[in-house]
Amino acid sequence: MQIVFEKPKALSDTPTHYCPGCTHGIIHRLVAEVLDELDITGETIGIAPVGCAVIHFNYFECDVAQAAHGRAPAVATGLKRVNPDNIVFSYQGDGDLAAIGTNETIHAAARGENITVIFVNNAIYGMTGGQMAPTTLPGQITQTSPYGRDTKTAGFPLRMCELLATLDGTAYAERVAVDSVKNVLKAKKAIKKAFQYQIDGKGFSIVEILSSCPTNWGLEPVKALEWLRQNMIPYYPLGVFKDKEVSR
Amino acid sequence: MADKVLMKGNEAIAEAAIMAGCRHFFGYPITPQTEISAYMAKRMPKIGGTFLQAESELAAINMVYGAAAAGARTMTSSSSPGIALKSEGLSFLAACDLPSVIVNIQRGGPGLGGIRPSQSDYFHATRSTGHGDFHMIVLAPNTVQEMFDLTLEAFDLADKYRMPAMILGDGMLGQVMEPVDISRGNNIKTYVKDWALTGTKGLRKRNVVNSLYLSAEELELLNFQRFDKYKEVEKIARTEDYLLEDAEVVVVAYGICARIAKNAIDTARKNGIKAGLIRPVTLWPYPKHQLKAAAEKAKAFVVVEMSMGQMIEDVELSIRCSRPVLLCNRTGGMVPTREAVLESIEKAALLKGEQNADSI
Q1: Is A86 at the interface with chain B, CB within 8 A?
Q2: Which of A6, B44, B83, B142 is the most exposed place for a label (fewest CB within 10 A)?
Q3: Does the complex come out with an ipTM higher than 0.85?
Q4: Domain co-membership, B250 together with B290
Q5: What CATH number should be reported for the domain holding residue A240?
């Protein structure tokens, strides 16, 4: 019998807890495929955030530290400074990375900390049941913006890749989406590049991945991906915002 | 470096940490402990270590969490308001059984308070420096020599029991200069850390450092197990006693207050009062058995501390309120005088053993 498709070795056999239609599963797989292809699982330490991916240590076959809410880049810094030969990546959502952990994110980037950040942006707090996130779009309805995000009182969303691209320590910042096969392939390419930059010691790399949350958006999975395309991508344009190698 | 060197308390802590094998220090400036960071900034690059000035105390303690998870001996230091910010990380360190050393050179509070010496973080350090059920080892030096010695010991205890350990000093001990014998720093134990995150190398199952347990049954069991370990740790409780053997008035004081108390006790003895001192060296675990034993002979207790009365609760609990306990305290950055302590001793000497201090 010929094997034509299999699970990446960097993923465990544990079934994930993610909701039907959630794109965390795709993103986990992409990260795991990259770990396999670069053959670095044995050297890698992942950081689990607070958020939907909090128990990702059940899924990745590498060493994992679970971090306090927003502190993943600081925890990653500690791990990386002790063993610079380890590959250290954090996997964080928008509340974790762009609200409570903004400071840690910005300063890890500013220091040029040689780590990789996988930033899953679905414009909502998923695990706590759908509250307004720092990346919630203007007008978007959530549990804590029930009349739609009013920018007069709740301000504007953060575009993290654009923000981090201004920092000298950021080696690579790209925004991708996982709404279509084409974009999923692009996302994988970006993730691989981010890990490769770390392997090459180039500094801080971040891949922001526009992701869907059908459960908390109140949309069917396919409709959620359409919503992502129609609403998120115009506000969060895809592309490379910083590439140390190219701008040189 | 000669074996005996003149150092500030803060510098003694930093040098001891280096001698204990700490190569990863994460700090953030705050008076009166900044010399620790400055010392580390100077020394670490020369010995292949990491000094990192974090963006906040929150970040610093979480860098410690990462470095400890990687199996390294690691330390952070701060002063009262900064330690409050580290509370989150301390709870996580305790929850994940990560060895680490935290230094609190206390200043007056609450709020931003002041920058002069204080002991008003006693509750914070010994009850629970963060949310949830946990303890830290808390060591209270009273000389610059002890700042050095207890820092060495803190690293050892943290590794041995897999838990965070705190050096609880104050602004005076941090700033004062005294000669220090650093020869003890040459004899350092190391521990195997097979739980550390270093990459599986494809040779073992993944290691996970985590404090999330969605099963209440599992979390309860883990807390029970951790508190069983704490019972073992309670055996390290210790004091330094001074003229305690026949003491009728027992002064209980830690840190700089114990040195002032010793002076007052000498004068009291000259005046015919049988006074003695118990100086808790460990604040958690608290030396409750030593206190209880002293209560069998003593008529009254005097607690000297630089707070509105925090350790006094542990004294009363330890002796089950069986003797009157007087409080001799200053707060806000003020330090008790020898005369004030003497006055309290004299007052206590007039009490009969059974009397409650409240009725005086």
Answers
A1: yes
A2: A6
A3: yes
A4: yes
A5: 3.40.50.970
